Amino acid sequence: MISPNLLSIATDTAHLPLIIPWPRQRIKRERLIPEGKEKVTLRHQKRAFVGCFSLRLKKNINWELFKKWKETRSPSITHQIARDFLPFIRNHYDYLTTAPPSGRRNPSCYCVYDLASAISRLTTIPFVPAFAQKTDKLHHGRFASLAQSKPELLKSWNIQRSSILFIDDCITSGTTARLCYQALVSLGNHVDGLIWVSAGT
Question: What are 71-83's pLDDT values in tens digits?
């Protein structure tokens, strides 16, 4: 019996089907939450504002993978983070919003907007961006946060006297969350805050 080769397969003259064995590569699936650290550690972030809480501590997550997610915006990681929020969204909210992108982030490719959109899909709470991109804050971190100016509300933001859930991926000094809170409540809104991980001390 004649064994087929690639040429006979390509010219449709093969007598036998040819199955090319591809080497199987094991894809190492990294865990954002290390084994044994699955329990959420709810912390009151009163340095930001009274109704603000964080869900996890930096030491209890895969911090390098989290930083990588901020650049790659992996949908599976986004979904994993979003699901952490669900047990703690118990009140009624008219809208959810986020902190503004820093100066070096592209608003159309912003990981926190991805996170907010994922939470919106899971909860049906409409996500509405509230703040313009920062120009004086090029990156995140305690010192960058402390030195930043007040966030500027988008001209399209006309939401007043509503219940708003403010979400973010990370909190350091709490300055960004506090300034956003002040801007939102100045319009008569009620604001609660949930932030995924606390990187502060």
Answer: 999 999 999 999 9
Answer for the pair 4, 16: CB distance below 8 angstroms, yes or no. yes
Please, are residues 173 and 140 in contact by the beta-carbon 8 Å criterion? no
Fold of 41-198: Rossmann fold (3.40.50)
Give the HSE-up count for residue 179: Cα atoms under 13 Å, Cβ half-sphere.
18
Cα dihedral 193/195/198/201 (nearest 10): -10
Distance CA 99, CA 156 (A): 16
Task: Convert the pLDDT of each residue in 54-75 to its tens digit.
Answer: 999 999 999 999 999 999 999 9
Residue 60's Cβ-side half-sphere holds a number of Cα atoms within 13 Å equal to 15
